[in-house]
Batch of 4 targets.
Target 1
Amino acid sequence: MTLKTRAFAGLALWIACALARAQVPAIFEGADLALGERLIAQSQCVACHQRRVGGDGSAIYRPAGRISAAGALRGMVEQCNQELNLTLFPEEVTAISAVLNRDHYRFR
Ligand code: HEC
């Protein structure tokens, strides 16, 4: 490989990665990820899931399970919000769902 083709390959890879990162479901676009992370830490999500499945609790998130799309993921978090009386605002539910999607479900 010449220097030029190597530089080009690097650039192409960088663009591909940037595009992959940008592929966020429309409903999670502009979500406040930092807020979502904070809420997940504050809302006992992980502690309770760990009691169920052990480890770091993330085994509760099953991308190949019954949740099969971004909207369903958000719906599940909204359901937990209501059942557990977390009194989260809609944008907070979205923020949490966006973080779970980024880290576990990866819907596009
Ligand atoms: C009191 C315990 C408890 C708390 C607190 C809790 N969960 Fe859960 N969660 C569960 C249980 C139990 C399941 C599994 C239900 C099942 O599979 O039937 C679950 C499942 C889920 C799922 C679906 C996983 C999948 O792929 O099927 C999501 C998403 C989820 N929880 C998100 C959250 C979030 C976000 C929070 C915090 C805001 C939270 N949960 C707080 C008990 C809890």
Note: Residues 40, 43-45, 48-49, 52, 60-62, 65-67, 76-77, 80, 84, 86, 96, 100 surround heme C (CB under 6 Å).
Target 2
Amino acid sequence: MMADFLDRADDLYSLGVNDILDASDAFESVRRARASLQLIYAKSHLDLDNVESLFGAIEMGNLIGKFPDIEDKTEIRALRASMVTVIYKTLERSIPFPVRDRTIMPPEPFMRFATSIHDLTAPNRSPVTQDVSLLTFNYDVNLDYALHVNRIPFDYCLTGQLPSEHIPLLKLHGSINWGFCEECDRIVAWNMRELNQGLLFPETREIYFNLGSQLPSSTHGDGHKLSTPVLVPPTWNKTDYQPQLAPVWQMAARELAGAENIILIGYSLPETDSFFRYLFALGTQSDTMVRRLWVVNPDEDRTVEERVRTMIGRGIKNRLTFMRLPFGMAIREIFGELTR
Ligand SMILES: [Zn+2]
């Protein structure tokens, strides 16, 4: 997520943007929680300017039923819900989707990325047709929508199954278009096909999707109500939705195990992210020979390179290549090399 995510959230709140004001209570309680944490964590290394650490701290508070300045456990639960609200509201107002000829397009560079995936996976489109799996830690639907627009069938594998002819899109930390149904005790994903594009004016140049905001007022199946979006903090794997997310994580480990080419794009492997380290270690324990392990990241101070080198085993050290580019500029090179 954006490095200045919490500042962005504060700015939107101070500006009094309409959709954000609907959630004033959530924004206020996250502000208070951050301030209380700052007091007691003044001497620790917890970076409370970072949304991922803050969300992680709140999730931990929720799990152990303790949080500074909050006595009541149900209030801590409510704080977790507020944190989720702040995240999806801020995301919704931060990602404009371009509109061309009354058609909503995915944000760049996701459109180009999905088009390349299409060429790579479609029979007869590239010299080497390949199986592709997409694993992501992002909550937004940029990639989901780009795949949809490119008519690439994909599945979130929430049931642990992959329908044939589908690409797995494994969102390891949830998604703003996933709601939880208490009656079915499972996560229900809003398909990109069900997006109501509404009426677009000819002069409309961009729109903001408010998928997350719509979830709690929507239903599935027999009128079952959905919750606010299912999001879990990136640094944490003992979460509210652990049983429901386990099939997605298992599928991710399986896909990693069978992968010949592993490409990590824009992921900085934070020290605190033990989740990914375990997933990678366990997932890559297999007989499959990894041919390429690429890391795409501008990584100006080379900290990411150092962390990746410490994480990977000796067996694949000589397969490691760094591509010091931002995502958008690396797409052509990635797919050029994969189809050679
Ligand atoms: Zn249901």
Note: The two ends are 32 Å apart (CA to CA).
Target 3
Amino acid sequence: MPNDPEIIRAAIRKAHELGADVAGAVAAKRLVDCPSAVAEKHPGSQENRGTCIVLGLSHDPEHPELDLWEPGRGTPGDRILGNTGKNLARWLQEEYGVRARLIPYRIEDGGIYLKDAACMAGIGRMGRNNLVLVPGYGPKVRFRAVWADLECPEEPSPEGDIPCAGCEGYCTRACPMDAFPTGRFSRERCLARMNADRTSGRRRIDHCRACELACPAGG
Ligand code: SF4
Ligand code: SF4
């Protein structure tokens, strides 16, 4: 029987087979007081044991339909990620007898701060636009995660070049809400735009992606 780190590596390979473009793992206990949890004063994980396997799906602007949000249904891209996560959890149970489950998307439903988790799992680095810049994809990636009853090796978050170093800040200039007034992201200003979108009466909503689509990272 393989040990837990071997199963985690196998699960990351399996996640790619099941359709994830990127995947990585982080110990759940590291997320409890991750930066967003501290900032929001809300625990960043309901679990302080086990492993969160983070899955990412590229949202190419050529397929804007992946990101169209509907009340009660979320987006098609998130449904694809959710199915990938459920299939991965089932595979872990069947292949290794490991308890695993898809983590809810929303933090208030027991979710985790997915962008923090993606960075801590080594998938990418946080950009000035408050999005994870993923090598090869830039900020055009959405995330979900699976919790698995596996011991994750403690690894420090990856160091490396700051992805925005030297960039003129196309993201902040593109924002229609001036949500980076001091250079730092203002959640309130961005949320005001999202809330206006959601009450617009449109059936399927194409949320603002200006700070994402303006970013040259990832090619
Ligand atoms: S999503 Fe739109 S409103 Fe929100 S920060 Fe980005 S550009 Fe600004
Ligand atoms: S546009 Fe430039 S500053 Fe903004 S996130 Fe992308 S690389 Fe960073």
Note: The two ends are 41 Å apart (CA to CA).
Target 4
Amino acid sequence: MREAGGSARVPFLDLSREYDSLASELEPAVLEILRSQQYILGPAAERFETEVARYLDVPHAIGVSSGTDALWLALAVLDVGPGDEVVTTPFTFFATASSIVRTGAVPVFADVRPDDLLIDPDAVARVVGPRTRALLPVDLYGQCADGEALDTIARRSRIGIVEDAAQAIGARRGAWRAGSFGDLACFSFYPTKNLAACGEAGLVTTADDRLAARVRRLRDHGSERRYEHLEIGFNARLDAIQAAVLSVKLRHLDEWNEARRARAATYAQLLGEAGLDGDVRPLTIAPDSVHVFHQYVVRVRKRDALRSHLEERGIGTAIHYPLPLHLQPCFAGLGYRKGDLPEAERAAEDVLALPIFPELRREEQERVVRGIAEFYR
Ligand SMILES: Cc1ncc(COP(=O)(O)O)c(C=O)c1O
């Protein structure tokens, strides 16, 4: 699609650019799986698990069928179930909370901090109670949640932590690496993620040998040996084609995350130069945080009108997330009302995600910022 001025659209995300640069590595890897006829788990999955465990510096990495299933498995191996509560953020992708419900437990939402939209440890401390079994923080947009503060709360209350690191592979915060704080962590390799499969895939990580063994068992119908089922599990196994793709892409992940950080820095500089303070507010990055910018999100005035203005100029944007989870129709039974979690509700009205991906070009970023500046002029 072309703009009136003749320049091509600035896509919110263009996966073809990554594919074009990687086809010569990806295609033989996929062909090898097709020729092997070992399509589920097997050597390709084991290889990826070993490589990603080394990358994340964790003792155990277990490949699974999606980030959603990773969350369910992680909660299940902590024996979270009916009668339990799990404290999480209302400002995340739906699967974070639906996974809690899937175990039979109840999600309890703690509001986010306005500056970075990560779960607020003070709000968490206020809702932890006798039924709380675990915390489920999210490393939103590619920035790690405040692991140190959450870890203190969890230790004090003797509860578990499952880290939803679906958006944050490669991120760090102080001494923590995304995927290494808490009892277990979950990653998604959905095709739009920083490390992306060509279908559905996910990962559970843990330092605990016993929990790791149980995740492995539960992802495969509760079985360790064929046709012997020790407990009721699930089909949540990693597909070998996805594992082969992920092994190829993992080699490029650091360079891609670096490119995302460079593009975030370019936005910050261009927005600053355009004098948009007051109209456009970037989110805060903690000084000890290494962000991987799965999304580049700003908070803006007149968000929906700005979005339409950009769309008319061929500039793609997205809203993550337009409705906080405590107000989702399917969670009406939890009894939350509008106004209960004001920071998440405000964020839902003013966040806007700008295009960010490693192959995004400088002139495309300049067009995005010009489009925004034109709107507020
Ligand atoms: C924060 C968060 N949690 C969980 C998920 C679920 O992952 P998947 O789509 O792989 O099931 C996603 C991504 O989609 C996510 O962004």
Note: The radius of gyration is 21 Å.
